[in-house]
Amino acid sequence: MPETAKKRAARPAQEVVVQSGNEIAAMAAKHVNYHIMGYYPITPSTEIAETLDAMKAEGEHTIRMIPGDGEHGAAGICYGATTAGGRVFNATSANGLLFAFEQLPVQSGTRFPMVFNIVTRSVSGPLDIRGDHSDIMLAMNTGWIVLMASDVQAVYDMNIMAPRIGEEMSVRLPVMVAFDGFFTSHQKRRVEIFSDMQVVQDFLGPFVPTVTTVDPRKPVTIGPYMNDPDLINNKKQQSDAIIRSHAVIRKVFAEFEALSGRRYDFLDLYRMEDAEAALFIVNSAAETAKEAVDALRKQGKKVGLIRPNVIRPFPLEEIRQALRKVKGLVVADRQDNFGAYGGAMTLEIKAALQGEKDNKTMVASRIYGIGGKEFFVEDAEAMLREALEIAETKKVKVPYDYFGVNPGEKGFTPAVAFAPITEKESSGITRVEVSPEGKMEVRGINVRALTERPKRLAPGHGACPGCGIFVNLNQFLKGIEGFVTVLFHTGCGMVVTTGYPYTSHKVTYIHNLFQNGAATLSGVVEMFEERKKRGEIPKEEKITFLMVTGDGGHDIGMGPSIGAAMRGHRMIIIEYDNQGYQNTGSQLSFTVPMGHSTSTSNYGPYQHGKSTHHKDTAQIFSACNIPYVFTAAENNHRDMIRKAAKAQKYAEEGLVFGKLISMCPLAWRTEERISVPIIQAAVDSCFFPLYEIERGITTINYDPEEKGKKIPVADWLKQMGKTRHLLKTECKPDLETIQTEVDRRWARLKEMHKNPLL
Amino acid sequence: MTRSMTAVKLPVKNDLGFFEIRLESIGGLGANVAGKILTEAAIIGMGLNGAGFASYGSEKKGTPVKSFIRLCEADHQVRINSPIEEPHVLAIFHEALAKSVPVTAGAVPGKTTVILNTRKTPQEARDFLKLEGGKVGVVDAMEIAMATGSRVNMVMMGAIAKAAGFFDWKVLEDAVREAFGKKYAALMKGNLEALKRGHDEVKMEDIPADGKYPATPFRREEPKLGYENAPMGGTIYEVGNMRFKDLSTSRTGVIPLLLLDKCTRCGECDITCPDYCFVWERGKDPKTGKDGMVLLGIDYQYCKGCLRCTHICKFGALVPAKEAEQDMEAITVKQKALK
Q1: Interface contact B239-A503, CB threshold 8 A
Q2: From CA A268, how far away is CA A245, in angstroms rounded?
Q3: In CATH terms, is domain B19-207 a member of 3.40.920.10?
Q4: How confident is the model at residue A3, as a pLDDT?
Q5: How far apart are CA A397 and CA A754, in angstroms?
Q6: At what angle do helices A231-260 and A197-204 cross, to 10 degrees?
Q7: A190, A196, A565, B34, B339 from A15: Cα distances, Å
Q8: Answer CATH for B241-338 from 3.80.10.10, 3.90.420.10, 3.30.70.20, 3.90.226.10
Q9: Do the chains contact at A18 and B43, CB–CB below 8 Å?
């Protein structure tokens, strides 16, 4: 047997699968057998948690999956879990990474290894969900080791190697594995994986903690208060560790090659042996660009390509070595370090070359592919030609530029769609009468007459057929008179009403990320008031400020909403509750009721949907003692419109909160046309009671019991694909638990209705 | 999955060594799943190498999507990540898409086989798509899907396999079984029948590039607003301009039909319509003669066919109807304020 064949035969068995980057990251996590995954869904990384959850429902692994209340919370869960002495995994993208940012140096600075998959995506402002490197390049200086996986195979391989690298006793640092959102995360490729996960277990060995928070016999203080003169020494240790990791990475790469037959180095050098001109480019675009290198080589051009597999620690020596003969180099960055005259990699390479005495490489920086803009072979060819020109002329004509941008069409004027809605047009249909005792009555609720009120949203939005959000918004806004400014949290309602250069909003609209909508609108409201006080805006000007969030936005954004309620800003918050993060593919929110199946609380033999009861946001706001809290449902539209009118009135006193149950035919797995009966069943089963709380006094507005219409919760659940499994015999105990909880909450509400002190 | 006995050779390849397939569809018709099955069948079952991917946005039903399958022989590496520009097979799952999306971009006579889910003949399909020429295949995937209790994607996969010519039928059937086996075992017979009928019933015709329609080369779309003329910060000044969008492509064959003689102008349709399609105007009520809001009709440009209104109307004034049997232009009432 020849030597190579012998070697191959000695290797553990592998098998071919066809999977996407996200799926294979989940597979790798299963093979590593992490103790815990703390996560929060964000496109395009979400599928990692979804895939792991689906596997778990089928009994394929036992990793404890913990959905955070946001990425910051998820990072906290991960941090706590690492201190308790086990293997920990997380995945995120873009603003999720930035929201977790504060925790990154905590993780590395206190030296607890874990693995964090960064499915790279453009950082928001304006929001873009597609792939670029603006997230990872911001995070690369937080003390983590950063591995770059350029294709689906590398995602698996690096996820197997990452724990080994970070856990090495001379290193003890957390590791990020970064791969391109959509390009790699969603592309299905042929991948080889180990047939037996024991191979991975043996490669990694058991997790060996240095200290833990769960060994009372060995008490320790983790994360002490540490000022000067000590912190600088702590950082020196950290710096030494990440520099030491260079040798460890080399060693692990070699051991992994022996095991798998797949070779990794700090740099992937493609046709660089005699290259005079080169392109430095990161991850998936580099693979595309290799085709351009081949094309130019065919024409006799001495071009090559450098792609890093590791960017922290930065492969300083390897880059100097690789560029020794290169005269012209274009560094393509899929992000910008604004104001620094180059993207992150450009600056790092220029700094690396500074240490090389005789280096003559001239460098140009090109910012490309921002926001996921597609990258074609001809783009790479154009960049390589620029590198060639630099090599030939020994001049960098344009040191820093954007590549593939478009000035726009000269003389183009976008078409006007609507004249602004006037105050008069949108007023005078409904009115609120206040009795001397302060009781409010709403007049003028006639849905036919209300068709005259201009809709604040234009048709043409891109919601799914039958979407409940736009029914709720339409009904609610029918009760609102005069000028309105809206703020939408990130979510379905936001994504489908704006998509540059289009907007469905006919009134002024602002978006902010759902960690922070209520705080943002607080600022708007107070600036409006302050400018009125200073005479910059007429004193009589009236605007109703309305924040629209999903129930998901009220997981991650709950804190700022409570803050706004406690400060008593004069605004309305409505939450369309469609029971899940539907915009990103139906992951569980805390508002999802127990037993419901979502893409992160799947139903299977080993898991019966969501394991905890639904969050009661209305009662949370009630506890903030704001003037008005209400619930409403589209099947009782007169009640909804009446509450909107009252909300507008109460918002003159302080903050108002309303919760609107909202159909999602896609995620609830129902027919689009039968929304009303399903919402009616949610109300009639007392799962979603219609009530209002005025200055602390609760009134039930519709009592199904009194009307003889109360139904068991099962009669609601049997109507939806996401809950039908709850009627199976095996789910009987789950169903009983749900019914008991619904009954308990309803009984409590009835007592509150009876007693004004409750 | 069944594996082919011999290594499969690709009949034709482009400059980079690939046989490429592009699927044009809307969310909800299963183009993504079809892409996944074809890719898995080719790689695992037939020993080819390749990639399967899609154009992604947020998770919405009814919006245009593209799915790509890029195949090469086993020893060839897949490095390119960009979308497929000039496919060998171009399958259009949803006929109405052609109104708003340049679905035929990059179709090259002599290279591309275009398959359309339609009741039209190949010649009619050619005219409808304004194709320069080349091989055109037509199949009534909706009809077959309904008859077999399956979905459009199964029928289209069968037709694609026929057009590609190199798919091992046993492998493909097995890939379908594997994709749906566990969860949807009851639908398997229908799925396999739909696949087979798609293969057998697609009607192909070679149409010469006779100059009737110009070539439709693949173009990268560039926006009209760019760095020189876009308002800073991404602000949009043209409020409500989504009204310029045509959402009729989201529909999958059914519409609500308004029977005005039964309408009482109660306003409940306006309360339940998520897409704000009902056109109202102040005027004289046709029955009572009193001044008030009067329902004129439906603006079908925005109607996605959810049929919520047909369910809420107590008076039978809104009923489901087949879109193909209606003269859509004649029954559409445009909103006056929108003109």
Answers
A1: yes
A2: 19
A3: yes
A4: 59
A5: 80
A6: 140
A7: 10, 9, 56, 23, 61
A8: 3.30.70.20
A9: yes
Minimum Cα–Cα distance from A497: chain B residue: B242
CB A464 within 8 A of CB A471: no
Chain B environment of A475 (Cβ under 8 Å):
271
Check CB contact under 8 Å for A503 and B242: yes
Neighbours of B188 (CB within 10 A): 15
Pair of tokens at residue A33? 């057998």
Residues of B in contact with A420 (CB under 8 A): 239
Instruction: Read off the pLDDT of residues A94-130 as tens digits, 9 standing for 90 and up.
Output: 999 999 999 999 999 999 999 999 999 999 999 999 9
Helices (H), chain B: 31-40, 122-129, 141-148, 152-164, 169-180, 188-201, 268-272, 308-312, 328-331
Size of interface A-B (CB pairs under 8 A): 277
- Give the C-alpha separation, A710 to A308, whole Å: 64
Over residues A385-402, mean pLDDT: 98
Instruction: Examine the pLDDT at A587 and tell me if it is beyond 90.
Output: yes
pLDDT computed for residue B117 by the predictor: 97
Shortest Cα–Cα distance, B210 to chain A (Å): 31
Confidence (pTM) = 0.95
Here the tokens at position A394 are 């020994």
ipTM of the complex: 0.94
Tell me the CATH number for domain A434-754: 3.40.50.970
Residue A406 to residues A368, A403, A512, A691: CA-CA distances in angstroms? 12, 9, 27, 53
- One digit per residue, the tens of pLDDT, for chain B of length 339 reads 778 767 788 999 999 999 999 999 998 899 999 999 999 999 999 999 999 999 876 567 888 999 999 999 999 999 999 999 999 999 999 999 998 889 999 999 999 999 999 999 999 999 999 999 999 999 999 999 999 999 999 999 999 999 999 999 999 999 999 988 777 778 899 999 999 999 999 999 999 999 999 999 998 888 999 999 999 999 999 999 999 999 998 998 899 999 999 999 999 999 999 999 999 999 999 999 999 999 999 999 999 999 999 999 999 999 999 999 999 999 999 987 654
Collapsed DSSP state (helix, strand, coil) of residue A368: coil
- Which pLDDT score, from 0 to 100, does residue B339 have? 41
* Contact residues, chain A, for B307 at CB < 8 Å: 466, 672-673
pLDDT digits (tens, 9 = 90+) for A713-737: 999 999 999 999 999 999 999 999 9
Domain spans, chain B: 19-207, 241-338
| Fold (CATH) for A267-402 | Rossmann fold (3.40.50)
User: Which among A392, A402, A388, A384 has a CA at the least distance from the CA of A291?
Assistant: A384
- Yes or no, beta carbons of B227 and A287 under 8 Å apart: no
Mean predicted confidence (pLDDT) in A547-564: 97
Cα B152 to Cα A430: distance, rounded to the nearest angstrom:
48
- Measured distance CA(A580)–CA(B187) in Å, rounded: 28
Q: Chain B residue with minimal CA distance to A510?
A: B235
Work out the minimum CA distance from A738 to partner chain B, whole angstroms: 26
CB contact (8 A) between residue B267 and residue A448: yes
Are B32 and B104 in contact by the 8 Å Cβ rule? The answer is no
Q: Which of A16, A47, A188 is best to mutate for the B interface (most B CBs within 10 A)?
A: A188
* Residues of chain B contacting residue A446, judged by C-beta atoms under 8 Å apart: 267
Which residue does chain B place closest to A373, by CA atoms? B82
| CB-CB under 8 Å, B311 with A676 | yes
**A14-210+220-260 — its CATH code?**
3.40.50.970
**C-beta atoms of A16 and B310 within 8 A:** no
What are the boundaries of each domain within chain A?
14-210+220-260, 267-402, 434-754
